[in-house]
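User: Protein folding is very new to me. Would you mind checking the protein record under this note? It all follows right here:
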Amino acid sequence: MNAQTSRRARVRKLGCRPAEHRPGQPHLSSMRGFMARQAPARLDRSHIDPHPAMLGNDRIGDCTSAGIGNHLHATAALAGFDVADITTDAAVRFYSLSTGYVPGKPATDNGGIEVDVLGYAQREGYALATQTLFPLWGSADPADLNGVRNIAAGLSAAYLGVQLADADMWQDQDGNLPPVWDTDSPAAHGDPTPGSAGGHCLLLWDYTGTADTDLVTLLTWGAKQKATWRWVRSRIMEAHGLAWRQLLPAGMLSPSGQDGEALVAANDAYLDGAA
């Protein structure tokens, strides 16, 4: 990795393995009205703190688990509260159960396949100290950025798998990433080829517009990271939506009626097939 080294360099781990597909997995295309509608031209959540947390992703490649924990944070924030017991221990425990990671054995820290991690959360839940929460989920066409925007607007955030470049991982002397991830990165930042750094799971939270150079806010490594839409288009390899029926606030552009029923039916069918 061609990140600039310094006394203040920060460790940020990757851990999203190449995108895969499982027979019968839920797809958001079943929610025809929800995915086909024109997404909001702008999604401004600058006044809301989604409480992004590191959740161990500076020590191990548990980004697929951290992404679920941060999706819970984000969904709760939209309803005006937080889920206090989303801890690093909980995230690492879920990462271990969903991927086979054995704490203390680095050779087992091989990251996660997003659809398998989401399927495990669907079946077994995301266990916290005081409760276990079960998401509905579905995959979307990663090339359908209107659909990705609908997921962010209606399901609190889009759960993405991206192929990061070495240039994205560049750090300044204080250990900060580039203020905006873009495809037009300085040559000094390293290789701009998507995937040259590795795969990563993160959340898309909001956006200023829909043009190539408009900015999106990503939630990753305990912080908000800005990027352009053309960067998202360049790096994205998979997109998924999660729905926490216990937490989704009223008034969101959430799937309802036939769309909501279709999402439940797709998840039930996948669970039945897995059983």
